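Worked problem 6 (solution included).
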Amino acid sequence: MRVTEAELPGVLILEPDVFGDARGFFMETWKAAPYAEILGTSAFVQDNLSRSTKGVLRGLHYQTPHEQGKLVWAARGRIFDVAVDLREGSPSFGRWAGVELSDENHRQFWIPPGYAHGFLTLSDVADVAYKCTEVYAPESEHVLRWDDPDMAIAWPDCGPAGPQLSSKDSQGKSLREAVLPTYRDDA
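Solution. The predicted structure is:
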């Protein structure tokens, strides 16, 4: 597996080995020992799968307390995936990193606890799978505004109508208003 560090501490782009021929391909999406060595954890407690259509933007979601680390990949289609450092006191606080994930490039994106996560669907349909290090806790859930000018995320163009958002995501808080996780040097 090839591992590349993103522009933020602890955020990684993983490219698993893919074995393909005329019939299709095979790849391991997760295996405890090698992922534990790379990510520093193998303690995943929940798997999620979402399906979205083109132009849907989900996020930016995070939990505090009960911060989640997420290992994300596009099982079908293409997305632009984003992580934002929300660890107050972190040298990279408020900065973001983004990567295109697709069923063709097979990349995975590791987003450690203390980061917000969101993605924009670029293909007609995308199935996004992710493993989480903490269970979903609705009382701990927060949404960061996807278009906050203080973060200036360079989302791909969605056309004049902009992205499609859920009502929850359209009410996200700005970085200045957000409830923030505490920065830990070991994260």
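Discussion: The chain has a mean pLDDT of 94.
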